[in-house]
Write a structure and sequence with these properties.
The complex is a heterodimer. Chain A has a 9-stranded mixed β-sheet, sandwiched between helices. The N terminus and C terminus of chain A are likely disordered. Chain A has 28 helices and 11 strands. Chain A is globular, with a radius of gyration of 31 Å. In chain A, 50% of the residues are buried. Chain A is α/β, with parallel strands linked by helices. Chain B is mainly α. Chain B has 1 helix and no strands. Chain B is rod-shaped, with a radius of gyration of 19 Å. The model of chain B has no long low-confidence stretch (mean pLDDT 84). Classes of the chains: A alpha/beta, B mainly alpha. The interface between A and B is large, with 42 and 29 residues.
């Protein structure tokens, strides 16, 4: 494989190496489970209340049934992931049923994702409003509310629950909109932390509930028979005036099941995190599935059951229907103030996990829309990166616009939102399972695991397990169409509108892409590579890596080219195609990774190289975050220097710190390199990434020399070198730090750190010195610098 | 029997048969899950 360059090849085209694998940092199954549970676990806060409002007091049995059935749905996801590393709904449906149904399924999935935000935001708002009102009511009952305020409100002051919930949901959605536009990075660390706090709450909740049950007793909810299912007016939808729901016992079970199915929303996240699971992937996926299955069964299932057992019938639906866990907290045995404090804790946890779900909804929707947009199903206009932050802000704006619209239209009615939400959840599962059934016969590739049992008759496999799961889902989804009128109407309108947009965009894009492809074929020659390797790109070790993103800011590329003799040192221009958390679950085709944006970007990069008269190699890498992409690419290509432009949202030190952190995540053995950040005014900051000889202060060098002079005066120590002094000093330091003098050393170092001032990059990326703008050198000079400033090779940087 | 009753009967059959099959899925995968959990080889639970 030859080098990619702007030098005319045989056919005058520039070769670009396109890596097809997303560069990811792999996570353990505990972290993966935490990421999924941040979405799946959040439904515990509202699913039980919504189900009971629809079908009455026997609802917890249905919620438990759904949580049990969720284990079987997870098995479908495990099988799909064992076939496709990115086994999300879109990929699987497209593979099995073609593009049209894939677009339809992704429309249903979008409905699910977009509604996750409003449902979670409004639910969190309901918990907060409930806490405020109950706290004021308790204070008022004790006479702590002044009479004037009491008089002003004509009774106990209360906030409007739905209005507060709407305000809160709008505020949280806007907050995460801005965070996503700025491009916050999803971290499994944060998800793990939220789940740890949630687990503390769940353990306390279950322990205290069991203690209360032992102390005051309780009754199980009525079993789910036709006589015990009490449909509300809204729960029968189009069958409101039909006799059918009252005639058939099993139909009643399906209706009840359909009203509880939103309890397992979030399963799709399993396919999304699979890509990022550490080795052994399949085993860890199964472990993740077990962890989330058991956790959500205990949390969502048991909480719904305990709520009916402990909260009196008179207040459960009247007061706590929208904040069932808060009702549970207030109906435990114990002093009121302690119960109120625990309720506040529940609200804090609810706030954390539900707000996280709002963010997950934006990130997930953005990921899915990015994915379909990359596939040419949504106009490229949506994918144009934000000028300052580089995010797909137009897609984010669209998602958040739809979410805000939903929040305001529903006006805090969690029941309506939840019912509509179930539409997207159940239909995306139906599409997925039917597709998996089709793929049992059509897919001939690798499949490491199958949903059991499978019967073999006359050489034909009959997937009994998969078909069974599919039958439960399909029957539930069809019945839901009749019983959830709001969900059916809104879901169908949404899906049809999205489907129409996708289809129209695809047609427009097909024509445009045909033109672009022809243009691209004239200019570029794409070479696919699964991973980034130096040999694949065809470059020499010690090369200069230049990350580029915005085609308007390529000054650093010019700077690097002007200072590099490309006969001796290769310059590799790399752009990271950022895949959001969700989109890592989907396969990326060449045209998705190398879109018209990358084409424009590389055309400009080639123009810069041509204007300087130097050769460059071009590379596209898909990645979850740009820093990991740069660090891993520099490592894989054995680059000696990375030359970057100044970020619009970070200082040079922060950029160095971010790259240093990404470098730390690369497994050993790894090589060090220099980072040079070229600022718009031409000033260049240079940092060493990785362990290296530190930059020593003059007084330290003098101290070392004085010590050496003294030591070498000792008899028999005449041959001691400076480095021997350092070795002895460091050995003593390591011994003292690990033993008796640890505290004092830490104190002293803190004092030094405070004197040095805040510079996070110091921790892992040491700044060398700042280079002032200076004259460039050409390929034809002798390589000796006259200005004293280092080129991208890093010579003279110490 | 009207069309809607036939449709309901089909849906009921699908639901019940599906649940029976799903319970078998749960039992078989549950048995496998115990094995997966007990197998500490290649564990990376950090």
């Amino acid at each position: 494989m030859s080098s990619t360059s702007n030098a005319p090849t045989g056919n005058n085209r520039v070769r670009i190496v396109v890596a097809t694998s997303v560069m990811l940092t792999f996570i353990s199954y505990w972290r993966a489970a935490a990421v999924i549970l941040n979405d799946l676990g959040s439904s515990a806060f509202y699913a039980g209340g919504i189900a009971e409002q629809a079908i009455g007091k026997s609802a917890p049995w249905f919620v438990l049934g759904v949580m049990l059935f969720a284990f079987a749905v997870r098995a479908v996801y495990v099988e799909s992931c064992s076939m496709f590393v990115r086994g999300g709904v879109y990929r699987v449906v497209k593979e099995a049923l073609g593009g049209t149904l894939a677009k339809l399924s992704v429309s249903a999935l979008m409905f699910d994702y977009i509604l996750t935000g409003p449902v979670s935001g409004v639910s969190a708002g309901q918990y907060i409003a409930g806490l405020i009102n109950d706290t004021i009511a308790i204070a008022d009952a004790r006479g702590w509310v002044p009479a004037a305020i009491h008089h002003m409100f004509h009774g106990t002051p209360q906030v409007g629950v739905n209005a507060t919930a709407v305000l809160f949901a709008v505020a949280v959605t806007l907050y995460f909109w801005w965070q996503n536009v700025k491009g916050i990075e999803e971290s499994s660390e944060k998800a793990l932390w939220v789940m740890q706090i949630t687990t503390v709450m769940v353990v306390m909740l279950l322990g205290w509930s069991l203690f209360t049950l032992l102390k005051v007793g309780g009754h199980l909810p009525p079993f789910p028979t036709l006589a015990n299912i009490h449909y509300s007016d809204e729960s029968l939808g189009f069958w409101k005036h039909s006799k059918l729901p009252h005639m058939f016992g099993i139909l009643g079970l399906i209706i009840g099941f359909g009203h509880s199915v939103l309890a397992m929303s979030g399963e799709e996240s399993l396919a999304q995190v699979y890509r990022e699971l550490a080795h052994p992937k399949l085993k860890n996926l199964k472990r993740t599935a077990i962890v989330i299955g058991v956790y959500s069964f205990v949390f969502t299932g048991l909480v719904s059951l305990l709520a009916v057992m402990l909260i009196p019938d008179g207040v459960r639906m009247k007061v706590y229907s929208d904040n069932l866990i808060a009702g549970l907290a207030m109906n435990m045995v114990g002093p009121q103030v302690v119960r109120l404090a625990f309720r506040a804790f529940v609200v804090v946890v609810g706030f954390l996990i539900l707000s996280g779900a709002v963010n997950t909804a934006i990130v997930g929707s953005n990921g899915v829309l990015n994915r379909v947009s990359e596939d040419g199903v949504l106009a490229d206009w949506f994918r144009r990166p934000h000028k300052k932050y580089g995010t797909t802000y137009r897609i984010i704006n669209l998602i958040v616009g739809l979410q805000l619209f939903t929040i305001i239209v529903s006006w805090g009615n969690i029941y309506t939102l939840g019912e509509a939400y179930a539409f997207g959840v159940v239909w995306s599962f139906v599409f997925k399972t039917i597709s998996m059934l089709v793929l049992r016969y059509r897919y001939k590739g690798e499949r490491n695991w199958k949903v059991p049992p499978n019967l073999h008759l006359f050489g034909v496999e009959i997937p009994i397990g998969l078909a069974s799961v599919g039958m439960v889902l399909l029957s539930t989804a069809i019945v839901n169409l009749f019983t959830k009128s709001v969900a059916t109407v809104s879901g169908l309108i949404f899906s049809v509108v999205f489907f129409a947009i996708f289809t129209f965009s695809e047609r427009v894009n097909r024509r445009k892409h045909a033109h672009n492809a022809a243009q691209m074929k004239e200019q570029f020659q794409l070479q696919l590579a699964e991973t980034v390797e130096r040999e694949t790109v065809g470059i020499r070790p010690g090369n200069v890596l230049v990350p580029v993103r915005d085609y308007n800011t390529l000054n650093h590329l010019r700077w690097a080219l002007e200072r590099t003799d490309t006969h001796e040192q290769d310059v590799v221009v790399v752009t990271a195609r950022i895949s959001q958390f969700g989109s890592a679950a989907y396969g990326l085709a060449t045209e998705q990774i190398f879109s018209d944006y990358e084409q424009t970007l590389f055309t400009r990069a080639v123009s810069v190289a041509e204007s300087v008269g130097k050769r460059i190699s071009l590379l596209v890498v898909p990645a979850r975050d740009p820093w990991s992409a740069i660090a891993q690419t520099a490592h894989n290509l054995e680059s000696s220097t990375v030359v970057s432009g100044l970020s619009s949202k970070m200082t040079t030190a922060e950029q160095a710190f971010a790259l240093g952190s990404a470098w730390e995540a690369i497994p050993e053995p790894k090589r060090q390199f220099l980072l040079q950040i070229v600022q718009p005014d031409g000033i260049v900051d240079t940092f060493r990434i990785g362990p290296h000889t530190p930059t020593m202060k003059n007084e330290d060098v003098e101290l070392l020399h004085r010590l050496w002079l003294n030591v070498t005066r000792e008899p028999g120590l005449e041959n001691v070198h400076h480095h021997d002094i350092l070795t002895e000093a460091l050995t003593r330091f390591a011994s003292d730090y690990g033993a008796h003098d640890h505290e004092n050393i830490v104190k002293e170092l803190r004092r030094h750190g405070a004197e040095a001032g805040p510079l996070p990059a110091r921790r892992i990326a040491d700044q060398v010195h700042t280079v002032q703008p200076g004259p460039a050198r050409s390929d034809r000079d002798d390589g000796h610098r006259t200005d004293g400033s280092p080129g991208p090779t890093g010579d003279g940087s110490e | 029997m009207s069309v809607s009753v036939v449709l309901v009967k089909i849906l009921e059959f699908m639901f019940v048969a599906g649940w029976v099959g799903s319970v078998i899925v749960l039992l078989l995968t549950g048995y496998e899950d115990v094995g997966t959990l007990l197998d500490r080889k290649d564990d990376n639970s950090h």
